[in-house]
Design a protein that fits this description.
The protein has 117 residues and is mostly helical. It is built from six helices and no strands.
Length: 117
């Protein structure tokens, strides 16, 4: 069970940090706003809230399965919007640029399957 705890800590760290950086780093927030999403200001706030709240839930081992669902959606969207365009530079470049996103997606799926509702 300690491996589950370590995975939870790692996933929580990445998402809480990501949410806080979007909140406090104007350059990162502006990059998010430039992605062409509908209602970009609202989407930014929703993503920040979900990353921080769901990250905290995973960290404290509460509603882990439910907390992974929106984070899986966020990570899939991040891959599609910010990493798939790198495919034109080649598969290796895409794999390199998407490595953290892909690892986080795999860990989120693992947590989703491992924890009860």
């Amino acid at each position: 069970m300690s491996s589950n705890r370590n995975i939870r800590y790692a996933v929580a760290f990445v998402f809480i940090t990501s949410g806080l950086m979007k909140l406090y780093n104007g350059e990162l927030a502006n990059h998010f706003l430039s992605l062409g999403l509908p209602y970009p200001q609202l989407m930014l706030k929703v993503v920040i809230l979900l990353e921080i709240v769901c990250g905290i839930l995973i960290l404290i081992n509460k509603a882990v399965k439910n907390a992974t669902i929106p984070l899986i959606g966020i990570i899939v969207a991040a891959i599609l919007l910010t990493k798939v365009p790198h495919l034109q530079s080649g598969l290796l470049q895409f794999a390199f640029n998407a490595r953290l996103d892909i690892v986080m997606l795999l860990l989120l799926v693992y947590l989703y399957k491992r924890y009860p509702s």
